[in-house]
């Protein structure tokens, strides 16, 4: 379910506040963010997944067993699992960080309000939401 425009704006405000409050933590979280892989990385992950699937099925057909366990099928499963991780944690785009930094600079230059703590701003927004209803 996609976010509404209001929710997207709130999320962007929270992100920019996080970058302003603690840029070191925000950059470490950004590096670990899931779902930010490129199209090329996804294509590589799909190709590796297919190779793993072939190994998985081929291991059942060939029946190479070590200790009664189909070892080629196990290797195929591990390759498939690795491809899934590659698709999830693949290299993210560098332009997103540049856009975010540019957004922070623009926001700071036009904001004339005194700086408050992140938690205070979030608490105020939370209270405003219930006052509106």
UniProtKB/TrEMBL annotation:
The keyword Hydrolase does not apply. Residues 97-110, 117-133 have a biased composition (Basic and acidic residues). The chain crosses the membrane at residues 43-62, 68-90. Keywords: Membrane, Transmembrane, Transmembrane helix. Residues 93-133 are annotated as: Disordered. The keyword Transmembrane applies. It comes from the Bacteria. Pfam families: DUF3040. This is DUF3040 domain-containing protein. It comes from Gordonia hankookensis.
């Amino acid at each position: 379910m996609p976010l509404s425009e209001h929710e997207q704006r709130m999320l962007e405000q929270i992100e920019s506040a996080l970058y302003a409050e603690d840029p070191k933590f925000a950059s470490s979280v950004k590096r670990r963010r899931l779902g930010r892989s490129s199209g090329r990385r996804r294509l590589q992950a799909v190709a590796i997944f297919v190779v793993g699937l072939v190994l998985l099925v081929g291991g059942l057909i060939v029946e190479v067993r070590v200790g009664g366990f189909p070892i080629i099928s196990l290797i195929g499963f591990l390759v498939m699992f690795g491809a899934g991780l590659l698709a999830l944690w693949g290299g993210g785009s560098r332009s997103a960080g540049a856009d975010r930094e540019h957004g922070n600079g623009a926001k700071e230059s036009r904001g004339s309000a005194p700086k408050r703590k992140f938690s205070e701003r979030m608490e105020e927004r939370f209270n405003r939401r219930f006052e509106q209803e």
